[in-house]
């Protein structure tokens, strides 16, 4: 029998100070959070949303290097609402036993999530649209979702049926408004929620609007298991000339990546034409979402509260179509899948600003709690608040942790022509590093194949890092200097070793686990020659087995060795042990020799 990880979740009241619970400040900002499903950030979808451009991008800040940590919807959404990585929530897929709404409840998170914390602090809270996979017409009330003043949840197995969605309003039995476009249902809920929220002038509000667009059509009405999204009649035929950008990684002549990706055949013209139309349909499906953006902003402005409202726009994960020869889908660590839109407008946020400072979905829950004026114990999160106002302060780290378990999926009828649409052994650990002068994506798959992408190269350069093969002659450029690839990979692997099982502060400041003296804060710092032997001798990231979920016994080594320069210490000094996460007084010095 496969052992299961157990989780003990503390009651959510730890998060809110007594002062915050007792005295809800009357001028605290309102928050609107718009969460699309599978929206791409690399095929131009934002450029085809005029209301988003006018009201959010032109009036707010775009975070170009924002990432999801798990490129599939349910684990990513749980990370959004808890501020924890999937290996800590242990919600790692979309359906039981590894994920879905039942797993969210089983692991204690129905009593431990963002909306509930906001509600406890005095916010009116609302949610319309898709919450999680496996939130169904059968389990919607067992138990009911906590933390919402009003709700209108889409329910499986009808969630992805654009004209046959099933919903539960405020916990009532499900209904099926057959023939009504699901994004238009969402638009009506948005206006109803705003009406209710604006009538209560004593309380701020938090509204989440989660359309299924531009997710594929699933279930009734689809030809295969997945088909392009359905489009509202008023948006049919738009953008007939659009084509997916023919970037260097689009349908390349030579195979990409490792593992199953390296075996994909080149797409023929019929498939490429189909994929272009697939993306046109995705863009058309987003037009109804764009209308919601415009109508929500108009209503807030009419009510005189727009200037005191933060509006977030993002997606649960990204999407690929044709890049690396891939059929439509997600689940990979490629930039198309993990780099997602994030635009924020609100009080004091610079307009028309674009920032490349990296951030991830782990950061959004603490960010929202901070702007809501709620005291945060940041040791409970795997992320930290984003500097929305661009005023500086402590520099953000350059790293983002990436992880996935399970299988890859081709969401296309053509994916079935090349063989089974499911690609097994798609579990991997990834690390995305982004700084001003260098950027890398490094991953280790459960097959123990490794790959490295130089994201700053004029054409994104990849290296398949074969085990046992010398890398001594290969180099990469960092800060204008050529560095041996082997040396860089040693540092990246050690950092990923920390992140693959990190919790809280070790996720936010992973270099401290490797350098407790805190004299290393970045990859650039870690490249100092004095650390070469230390990194060369670190245990490397590896798997013992490919699994469909987070099984600790199959995850390989879990601990790193910390660098200790004993010249800096005396026997009376205190030393921080990153593995035990505690300070050692009068430690056994032989351990550090």
Automatic annotation (TrEMBL):
Occurrences of domain Sulfatase N-terminal (ranges): 29-374
Enzyme Commission number: 3.1.6.1
UniProtKB keywords: Glycoprotein, Hydrolase, Signal
GO molecular function: arylsulfatase activity; glycosaminoglycan binding; N-acetylglucosamine-6-sulfatase activity
Record's keyword annotation contains Glycoprotein: yes
Residues of the signal peptide: 1-24
SUPFAM superfamilies: Alkaline phosphatase-like
Gene Ontology BP term (one): phenol-containing compound metabolic process
PROSITE patterns: SULFATASE_1 (PS00523)
Transmembrane segments: none
UniProt PTM: The conversion to 3-oxoalanine (also known as C-formylglycine, FGly), of a serine or cysteine residue in prokaryotes and of a cysteine residue in eukaryotes, is critical for catalytic activity.
Enzyme class: hydrolase
PANTHER family reported for this sequence: N-ACETYLGLUCOSAMINE-6-SULFATASE FAMILY MEMBER, SD21168P
Protein name (Swiss-Prot/TrEMBL): Arylsulfatase
Organism: Hypocrea jecorina (strain QM6a) (Trichoderma reesei)
